[in-house]
Amino acid sequence: MKGRSLKLREAHKSGGAASFCSIIWDLRAEHLLTSSSNDLSICIHDPLLPSNSPQILRHHRDGVTALALSPNSTCLASGSIDHSVKLYKFPGGEFQTNVTRFTLPIRVISFNRSGSILAAAGDDEGIKLINTIDGSIARVLKGHKGSVTGLAFDPNGEYLASVDSIGTVMQWELHSGTALHILKGIAPDTGSDLSVLNVLGWSPDGETLAVPGLKNDVVMYDRDTAEKLFSLRGDHVQPICFLSWSPNGKYMATAGLDRQILIWDVDRRQDIDRQKFDDRICCMAWKPHGNALAVIDVTGKYGVWESAVPSSMKSPTEGVPGLQSKNSNGLLLFDEDEQELSASGSLSDLGEDSHGESEPPSRKRLRKKSTYDEDLDEDINDDLLTSLPKVESRKKASRSHKESLDNGNEGLRSTTSSRLKMQDAFQPGATPVQPEKRRFLCYNMLGSITTIEHDGYSHIEIDFHDTGSGPRVPAMTDYFGFTMASLNEHGSVFANPCKGEKNMSTLMYRPFSTWANNSEWSMRFDQEEVKVVALGSAWVAAVTSLNFLRIFTDGGLQRYVISLDGPVVTASGFKDELAVVTHASHCLPSNDQMLEFRVLNISNGTQPLKGHLPLTPGSCLTWFGFSEEGQLSSYDSKGVLRVFTSQFGGSWLPLFSASKEKPEENYWVAGLNMNKLFCVVCKAPDLFPPVMPKPVLTLLDLSFPLASSDLGAETLENEFILKNMHLSQIQQRIEEMEAAGLDTTSLDDEAFNVETALDRCILRLIASCCNGDKLVRATELVKLLALEKSVKGAIKLVTALKLPNLAERFNNILEERLLNETSRPAAHDASSITPNVVMSKTLTSSHSSEPSQPVIPSPSPQLSSPFFTKKGKLQEGAEVGIEKVEQIQTATVEKNIGKVNNLAGIKSKEDSKNQGEASSIGEVKNVAGNLRPANPFAKLSSNQEKSSLFDAIKKMKKTTDETSKR
Questions:
Q1: What gap in Å lies between CA 849 and CA 423, rounded to an integer?
Q2: Residue 713: its pLDDT value, please?
Q3: FRET label pair with 481: which of 66, 250, 686, 778, CA 20 to 30 Å apart?
Q4: Angle at CA 619, nearest 5°, toward 613 and 620?
Q5: Radius of gyration of the chain (CA)
């Protein structure tokens, strides 16, 4: 093991003094990020082109001491000597917000594996756990005496480990915020040298915690007992200042004050390679895939050590334990096959793991409460006092949790099976009544309404997740005993059931802002009681025990009273639409609930949707509502989320299944958007969270329950289906807006972006098919590509894979598609075109009255690919990184001159017609300059003189004929 020389490149100016520098990879290993405590800028480097100037982010007012990327690499966090923690979009680098501030410099930040929590600490007394959904401080952990310099979340979501500058390690239980283990003086005391920071790290399987030792070694501690297991001691002659586990946990890299890095085989407890440097290495990061280690020293110079693990040994990213196989959304930083799926996202989309192992922990002691049996309150309250089981019985406890949940479900099934009881009505986002306990009357994506009963009356509070945009609503005293509520941006509605003969059921609405005094109103109901309430834009709805749907204006005017077909189960509102779920009939002998839904448009007085509501066999409905985009959604007790789509005449698509997650966890749904499910994770058998401490929302990726593919590419196939669904929904919205005469520019942009992302997914699927020798499937996929650039990329791909027959088929598909596009019949008369008209159909001659025939009939049915109307700016595709589609070049036609002659021969009878067509097209060009052509493979040139493909073929043939005559 001879020392080898690794050349480092300067990223930050050192100013002659040693500094602590950071280096991290993004999820795809497409970027390297560096920072220095002597430099207020963050550099984003291209590792493939290190000579290129990096992208610079300058938002801090002092040196940057810490960097962290969310698990799906859509959000960058940075901490600084200026006491602030900032968030940015990534990879764009757009500054988002100052998520928190400290009173002293920050030394370390870290995301949990789901990205829902960001931990930050430094010279201040406490460790802040920041909710990345709304920016609130979920908890502050206090106990360290020195500056906190290292943080590490347990991959299994139960613990947080921290180490300070005086060598004390603390292990925190995230459920309760208590310190389970305090190990004093086990790490080196770094003193006042701020370029040396104590660090620590969990093994990828979460079973071992690695801490720098006092004997120039690394000591391994058990995750649960904190007992010393073994140590790695080798040729370091000075204390270790940084360590990093390989993605599969088989290797570890350690950097010491002796200016060398050692690579360790952890199982053999032996160093297998080393590298010496001119200056001390202060930070390292394993490449998410491949075999490389990025390093940076205290002078701000960085480099990448290729083949850090000898090539004769197992790759450091091969066989990631446990977590890889259960993940399908690309959040593991070291999963090469699945990381591609998180290409898009925003700050609110800090990617969450769909498959249990990377789920964030429940951050509070949850009540063991059954939604279906309120007689268990006393037992439940006793269970709250029971502490978590000891470490040695952790796996056994996990199994007992699962068995308890299964037994509970069996008990529920057997009870209801004997009674064949129909599901009771429930309010979405509400939790059951708990004596002397605060509970949720409503919890949704906007905020929450909570209540607690005290001395015969209740105290109600309304809180918004985004305290900056939501109004401040004073708390109120509830003398009616409200048990249900609904909340939107305009106001809140409350209702209570009947309490004896004298206390009638009451409905009350409170607007948040109004121009008139005394805008609050209430209604009382005699001999009927409110079961469910809902809110929308300028209306309030209540469904009663008499199966009446009562609709009021927000001013209190009784507008409609409608009789429903059966007893109500739940209801939800979104803008003008009200969705109501009712029982269609009694339960089946199999105990399956028979439910139906209807959607009413209150402003138009119409019912656009009605049908049966599907549920998993043996389950009941637990949540019902609309996504942020307005898609009707449901969630049942078996953990299946369904979203309604207009595809196939109206269908419910299963987009999430809790059975693929951790069996010891339940998910209490708060809402969803196009890509994520927002929920609170509850430890089984708990079905809902307590109010205090404040629940932390977890984001879970949506995914279809696909069958196991013979390619092993289920994640790519899932992305493919999701993007197709997304594209279909956008197309429907475009059609609706066009029918209403509204501007669709923003939706056109979104559709184009999704289209290009879908092409990238299809190209990856084609590569998987080629590697798996599924060539017919690859041919089907290439027909779904929307852009010519993508088809050419597929041709290059199969050519590189040495599949000439497949490349020839792809070429034929491209040629047929181009020719069919150019031979489409005229759809509009050129004289009817105006400069303000956006056309999505092919511009053809107004003189052509006969439908033209395709030049080459397709030998097999081609799958249609979605095309959308695009403005001129979208042809550039700058925002999505897609180059402008190139015009058909003369060289391409020459290359296939034999085929050109045949095609031209077939078209010889239509020459005169096409000449007239060309002149007519020339007339149209003056008004079509900013229009997107129907053919996505063609683009309008800047001089407005583009001719058709067939004209180019004819000119080419003419040139060839003249050459042959000579």
A1: 63
A2: 84
A3: 686
A4: 60
A5: 32
CB atoms within 10 A of CB 274: 18
Whether 99 shows a pLDDT value over 70: the answer reads: yes
Displacement of CA 164 from its chain's centroid (Å): 33
What's the Cα-to-Cα distance from 865 to each of 195, 720, 831, 862, 898, rounded to whole Å? 56, 13, 30, 9, 29
Gap between the Cα atoms of 369 and 384, Å rounded: 10
First CA to last CA distance, the chain? 71
Q: How far apart are CA 346 and CA 177, in angstroms?
A: 29
> Scanning the structure block, which residue is given the tokens 């950097």?
255
Measure the CA–CA gap between 608 and 645, rounded to whole angstroms: 13
784 phi and psi angles, rounded to 5 deg: -90, -5
For residues 386-405, give the mean pLDDT: 40
Do 688 and 682 meet the contact criterion of CB atoms below 8 Å apart?
yes
Burial tier of 350 (Cβ tally within 10 Å: 0-12, 13-18, 19+): buried
pLDDT tens by residue, 790-813? 999 999 999 999 999 999 999 999
Angle between helices 897-906 and 949-965 (to 10 degrees): 110
Strand runs (DSSP E) across 658-800, as ranges? 665-672, 676-683, 698-701
Structural contact between residues 127 and 162, judged by C-beta atoms closer than 8 angstroms: yes
- Residue 478 tokens read as 């509830």
Q: What pLDDT does 500 receive?
A: 56
CA distance linking residue 534 with residue 426, whole number of Å: 12
Distance, in Å, from the CA atom of 525 to the CA atom of 202, rounded to the nearest integer, reads 60
CA distance 884 to 904: 28
d(CA 524, CA 529) in angstroms, rounded, equals 9
Q: What is the DSSP string of 676-687?
A: EEEEEEEETT--
pLDDT value at residue 848: 37
C-alpha span between 544 and 541 (Å, rounded): 10
Which are the contacts of 575, defined by CB distance < 8 A and separation ≥ 6? 536, 537, 630
Max CA distance (Å), the chain: 108
Beta bridge partners of 678: 671, 699
Q: Name the one residue in this structure whose structure tokens are 């005290």.
A: 454
Rounded to whole angstroms, what are the CA distances from 145 to 165, 185, 309? 9, 12, 38
Paired with 333 in beta bridges are none
Asked if the model's pLDDT at residue 944 lies above 50, the reply is: no
Confidence tier at 872 by pLDDT (50, 70, 90): very low
Q: In b/e form, how buried is each residue of 935-960, taking b as 16+ CB within 10 angstroms?
A: bbbbbbeeeeebbbbbbbbbebbeeb
- Residue 492 — very low, low, confident or very high, per pLDDT cuts 50/70/90? very high
Query: The tokens of 728 are what?
Result: 């279909």
Cβ distance 653 to 328 under 8 Å?
no
Other Cβ atoms less than 10 A from the Cβ of 529: the count is: 18
Q: Starting from the edge strand earliest in sequence, which strands make up the sheet with 117-122, in order?
A: 106-111, 117-122, 126-131, 137-142
Q: Contact at 8 Å (CB) between 432 and 374?
A: yes
Per DSSP, the residues of 535-553 read: EETTEEEEEETTSEEEEEE
Please count the other Cβ atoms lying within 10 Å of the Cβ belonging to residue 164: 23
The position carrying tokens 């339960």 is 587
| 198-202, 587-591, 648-652: least confident range | 587-591
CA atoms within 13 A on the CB side of 194: 18
pLDDT digits (tens, 9 = 90+) for 304-315: 999 999 988 999
Residue 709 is predicted with a pLDDT of: 81
In this structure, what DSSP letter does residue 944 have?
S
Question: Where on the phi/psi map is residue 498: left (φ > 0), alpha (ψ -120 to 50), or beta?
Answer: beta
Partners of 609 in the beta sheet? 599
Task: Give CA–CA dist 65/82, Å, rounded.
Answer: 10
Residue 116's nearest CA partner among 718, 689, 677 is 677
Tokens at 93, concatenated: 């680098």
Predicted model pTM? 0.47
Taking alpha carbons only, the member of 487, 533, 512 closest to residue 670 is: 487
CB atoms within 10 A of CB 56: 11
